[in-house]
Design a protein that fits this description.
The chain has about 375 residues and is of the alpha/beta class. It folds into 2 domains: about 60 residues, DNA polymerase, domain 1 (Orthogonal Bundle); about 325 residues, Aldolase class I (TIM Barrel). Helix content is about 30%, strand content about 15%. The chain has 12 helices and 14 strands. The strands form 3 sheets. It has a 10-stranded mixed β-sheet. A two-stranded parallel ribbon has the order 1-2. β3 and β4 form a beta hairpin. α1 crosses α2 and α5 runs parallel beside α6. It is globular, with a radius of gyration of 21 Å. The C terminus is likely disordered. Bound molecules: S-adenosyl-L-homocysteine. The site of S-adenosyl-L-homocysteine (SAH) has 17 residues, from β10 and β12.
Length: about 375
């Protein structure tokens, strides 16, 4: 059985062509799956009976398994989604919906865990299991749309405001380390026969995989956020170890190249503020110096603590001062509000459930806490 969520529209067109079906049928079926959110070919009322029979025999529309659905006091909603393999082992990822007055943002995951080991990130501490498939990446948006009652209705004018207007690949994992599947999912997000989102409202966040930044620019240039976090290679090597491979000079050059094709005329630099580590006035000035050749905005993220982390969040006064130094140099800097903190849905708190294959826990003497063994029941509470 193929899972139709694994195809972008072009892929579905090819698969249909091999079965003698016309391209417009692929667009039609994509609309049923992604715009109207159906999981059953029987519901595709205007699709020819013979095609429906073929699909019923050869294909399925299989979204992720919902293991848990939590809503925070501020309305942020988080789903724990099971992505087990054939052996039935319990991997799970997290997806977060953040409602705001004028937009709704879905934060999605790209890998089970993460291999990059940034020192301040909870996902990194969980180890890495595998890349998510296209179906598992787009399945998060497909699932959230259904759960939020946001799917469209056939024949109804749907030009109005969208429940999910923005998507950010800022959940678990490094999206650019899973570029093929991420690109297919991005194409579906942008395709008018699927989600039809604006390129400017889809953001990929990366810790700085330079060659993949170039590939993204040439294949699906969406908005780009880069996790900067430090003004010097010495410090960034420590916080974001991938910096040893792609140092700041190369990263800044890749950002400039990206802007040639980006849908926005700036790069967003994310900067997690760690008390006493990277939050001094001198750090702020050094950051300005480093990025002066890259049109950019800053998104400052006061550190979100998690069990077992040694870093501390700076005082609000320190955060304000850091922001002010950037703003005084005419660089836009916003401070990311913590959302969904009471359900561990904030930046860097997503841990899901990762069957670590890197054996990082053993290597560190089992000291790193793992939620795998703490809180997650593998019973299906909601199954949608
Ligand atoms: N791997 C990609 C996508 C993850 S995005 C990347 O690194 O950009 C998640 C964002 O939250 C990144 O900017 C990450 O550095 C930041 N983050 C991670 N841990 C955090 C924590 N404990 N507190 C605040 N921000 C954190």
């Amino acid at each position: 059985m193929v899972n139709l969520l694994d195809f972008d529209v072009e892929g579905l067109t090819d698969w249909f062509a091999q079965r003698g079906e016309k391209p417009f049928r692929a667009r039609q079926v994509s609309r049923w799956i992604h715009r109207f959110g159906v999981d059953d070919v029987g519901q595709m009322t205007d699709v020819a009976k013979t095609l429906r029979a073929m699909l019923a025999a050869e294909a399925e529309i299989r979204g992720p398994q919902s293991l848990r659905d939590s809503t925070a006091a501020d309305g942020t909603r988080k789903w724990l989604l099971g992505v087990g393999n054939q052996l039935g082992n319990g991997n799970a990822i997290e997806t977060v919906f953040i409602p705001e007055a004028n937009r709704g943002t879905l934060c999605i995951s790209s890998q089970v865990g993460c291999a990059l080991e940034c020192s301040f990130c909870s996902t990194g501490k969980q180890g890495f299991n595998r890349n998510l498939s296209t179906a598992e990446i787009i399945g998060q948006l497909w699932h959230a749309n259904r759960m939020l009652g946001a799917v469209r209705q056939p024949g109804v004018d749907d030009s109005g405001e969208r429940v999910i207007s923005n998507v950010v690949l800022m959940g678990m994992g490094e999206p650019l380390a899973n570029l093929d599947n991420v690109s297919a999912a991005l194409r579906l997000m942008l395709d008018d026969n699927a989600y039809g989102l604006s390129r400017r409202r889809v953001t990929v966040s990366t810790a700085g995989l330079v060659p993949a930044i170039d590939r993204l620019r040439d294949s699906v240039p969406v908005a780009l956020a880069v996790s900067l976090h430090a003004p010097t290679d010495a410090l960034r090597d420590e916080l974001v170890p991938i910096n040893r491979k792609y140092p700041l000079r190369e990263l800044m050059a890749a950002c400039r190249r990206y802007l040639e094709k980006a849908p926005r005329d700036f790069i967003t630099f994310e900067y997690v503020l760690l008390a006493g580590i990277n939050d001094s006035d001198a750090d702020a000035h050094a950051v300005l110096q480093l990025t002066r050749t890259v049109p950019c905005k800053f998104n400052l993220i006061p550190f979100n603590p998690f069990p077992g982390s040694d870093y501390r969040r700076p005082t609000p006064e320190r955060v304000r001062r850091f922001q002010e130094i950037l703003m005084n140099a005419d660089v836009v800097a916003t401070v990311r509000k913590t959302r969904g903190g009471d359900i561990d849905a904030a930046c860097g708190q997503l841990a899901g459930q990762v069957q670590d294959r890197t054996r990082r826990h053993e290597a560190q003497g089992g000291k790193v806490r793992s939620r795998t063994h703490q809180t997650i029941p593998i019973t299906l509470e909601v199954n949608a």
